[in-house]
Amino acid sequence: MRVGIGYDIHPLIRGRLLILGGVQIDHPEGLDGHSDADVLTHAVIDALLGAAGLGDIGTMFPADDVRFKNASSLDMLSSAVDRLREAGVRVVNVDCTVIAQAPQLMPHLAAMKRNLTERLGTDDVNVKGKSPEGIGSLGASAGIAAQAVAAVDEA
Hints:
Layout: E1 2-14, E2 18-20, E3 23-25, E4 29-31, H1 39-52, H2 57-60, H3 73-86, E5 89-99, H4 109-120, E6 125-130, H5 136-139, E7 143-154
């Protein structure tokens, strides 16, 4: 068994949809980034690729590649899981945390978990939301961050 850690952070800006774990959340700002900027899904992708020894999200989905402009991060996750399968690796479990002052995440966590579970091919997925309690730039609602830990094994 191998374990990988993923992390992502993006600033919040006006004029973008807020997507977390593939769930569109009603909020006046969205995350700025090349794809849909879904920090939760990006952290999961990084954790999986790291656990499998297959690089990172920037290597697989370069930010300067027009194919990924406004791309769905859930589609990117599916591609990453396909790459793991090709390498003879299966996802065992994923545990992740989204850190955001706003919006309130609790009403959306179950839908995020469903989306990730569907793409990962395992029921062992956990999604948590945490508040930075007003501390630092995340506490000032300047952005949203996510962390993920993934365990993989030979298929």
